[in-house]
Structures are given as structure tokens and as C-alpha cells.
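Reviewers of the previous submission asked for a worked example of the structure-prediction workflow described in the proposal, so we include one complete record here. The input consisted solely of the amino acid sequence. No template or homolog information was supplied to the procedure at any stage.
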Amino acid sequence: MKLIKNISFYIIIGILICTLGNMLESKSLFKYLQDNIIGLLLTLLAINTATLGLIASKIQDILIPYPSLDFSDVIKEMKMSLLEQIILIIVSIATLLVKDSAILEFKLKDSFCEVILVAVLTYSIYILWDTGKAVFITIEEIQNMNKKK
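From that input alone, the workflow returned the following C-alpha cells.
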């Protein structure tokens, strides 16, 4: 349910940003996304993977003195984060193929594809923000554990 809510939210954000871009007669964001979205998403995936690796190593450090702690939900969310980013890359590739297709033609095709690309970008930024937030939560928990010693 959370995933459907997130997807819906970022599609609405995409619609709002695209509407604003069209009202301002600005195509620069859409051109940038069309030319760079895959590289941008791969970069965000690399950053997220490195950050999650750091969090995983800290979890291992925590488990040494506290082996009874259960991090299975955290690990599940970390895996889901990476899966979401890979799905976003696949969605972007499919969207770019549809957008550039001479065979597939339908009303508002460009607008539809632009909304999807903006939604993918904003969702990817959210995933990166969520991972960054996890780093600070981990640091705070380690500090709290050290104070209790």
C-alpha cells in the first residue's frame, strides 16, 4: 500500500511540475531529463548503494556487542530501496523508448512521458533522502548506545 501511495504522490508531483513547465513554456527540464535521466539514476543508485553499504557495516558493528538486536526490517527496507531504484531505471528506459518511438503514437504522448520522467526523478531523490536520513538515525542510535555504556 505504501508503494502505491508513493507512486501516486510522485505522479501528482510530476503532473504539477509538467503543468508549471508548460505554463511557463519551458522545456529545459524535460530536455535535460530526456538526455540525462539514465546517467542520473545510475549515479543516484551508486550513491545509495555506497551509503547502504556504510549502514550495513555499522549494523554489523552494533550486532557484535548486541547480538540479540533484530535488524531484519532494516535490511528488508535497504533491499527494497535498491529494488525501487532499479525499477525506476527500467521505467525510465521504457518511457524514453515510448517517447522516441515513431511507431507508437497517441494523444499527449510527450506530456505523458514527461510526467513519468519527472515522477521518476522526484521519487529517486526521495529514495536518496530517505537513505541519508537512515545514516543520521544510525549515527544517533550509536551515540545513544555509547552513552548507555
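Residues 38 and 128 are 16 Å apart (CA to CA). We consider this example representative of the routine output the project will generate in years two and three.
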